[in-house]
Amino acid sequence: MYQSQISGVGKYVPENVVTNHDLTKIMDTTDEWIQERTGIKERRHIKKGDGNTTAVMGYKVAKIALERANIDKDDIDFIVFATLSPDYYFPGCGVQVQDMLDISTCPALDVRNQCSGFVYALSVADQFIKTGMYKNILVIGSENHSGGLDMTTRGRNVSVLFGDGAGLAVLTRCENKNKGVLSTHLHSEGKFVEELSLIGPSTKYWVPEIIKENPQENIPYYPQMNGQLVFKNAVVRFSEVINEGLAHNNLSAKDIDMLIPHQANLRIAQFIQKKFKLSNDQVHNNIQKYGNTTARSIPIALTEAWENNKIKTDDIVVLATFGSGFTWASAIIKW
Ligand code: UT7
Predict the structure, then answer these.
(1) Is the peptide bond before 326 cis (omega within 30 degrees of 0)?
(2) For atom 9 of ligand 1, which residue has the closest CA?
(3) What is the extent of the structural domain holding 46?
């Protein structure tokens, strides 16, 4: 059995900044409401014509992370791409990135686990390294939310939350048994499937059918969320899955050097911080600048914490997430 460690991280965000004030011009909302309930001040949205797509941003961030990990693209054994907003219905973004990187062939897999996508993808990659099958794996999270949000007052409970961009970790085989990804813990509870979902277009709701069956005021092809139910489940599941990871490794909250929570809502992150008695230096949040970016929120916050020298060798880094499905997950990493 081998161990896997993160040998490079990277983030990419589109240049176009959309502030809360910008949103007040197109829907009935306020900067005060958004900041008070979520902590978000601004987010990035792809601008028409800037060339960005979910796969393109995944490619851009792959270039950065490979350089940092000092790994040649031809040494990549596997690409695992997490997104809920792929360029195409099929094929997935993983194969697009493989082509953009000019890797002649390599396996590529898309993971569709929404806000838990990155930790699920990391866990998949970790298993392939642990068994000895692969040495270097790109684990990408990338989202283009802005292309599919209802940017009117009708969709404001969802659309003010989300932003675009990509984050990535290069996972590499390491011989030291006490380093790297110590464990991952994954969960789902499908009874809440429609509480945070985008149900059409899909094989169940093809576009012509939606148009025929649904009057304009009830369009099911935008994301929908039961915010309060999601919030209540999130705070419970975040805590459970962090405790599960710590207990599995005979660690306690006192051992956490850095917690990177999925950036769903600053209030959720602050609740968890308080519960585990962590200082501001032990938690990294950036939802204020980027909004909720789903599968790429953890890698982008992880990258930022690393770039700001907030993560040091041998630190215990905890990744934790909760989202649509419902799904939730954690990873315990010795850096
Ligand atoms: O990443 C995946 C996981 N996602 C999450 O964890 C999100 C969890 N949920 C939340 O973060 C919160 O539920 C939200 C921030 C989404 C919403 O906050 P809330 O305190 O639960 O608000 P609410 O949905 O109960 O809405 C309260 C009021 C409503 O008006 P009335 O009925 O009280 O008159 C909404 O219509 O706020 C209204 N509202 C808004 N007002 C201004 C909803 N969205 C907005 C908005 N601007 N953008």
Answers:
(1) yes
(2) 227
(3) 3-178
Closest CA relative to residue 122, chosen from 332, 287, 335: 332
Decide if 309 is catalytic: no
Pocket test for ligand 1, best of 20, 83, 153, 157 (most atoms within 8 A of CB): 157
Residues 161, 208, single domain; the answer is: no
Query: Which residue(s) pair with 172 in the sheet?
Result: 5, 136
What's 155's domain CATH number? Answer: 3.40.47.10
pLDDT 10s digits, 271-284: 999 999 999 999 99
Q: pTM of whole model > 0.70? A: yes
Same domain, 15 and 160: yes
- Tell me which of 93, 106, 115, 174 is the catalytic residue: 115
| Interval 160-175: pLDDT, tens | 999 999 999 999 999 9
Beta strand 108-111 with 78-82 is parallel
Regarding whether 36 and 156 lie in a shared domain, the answer is: yes
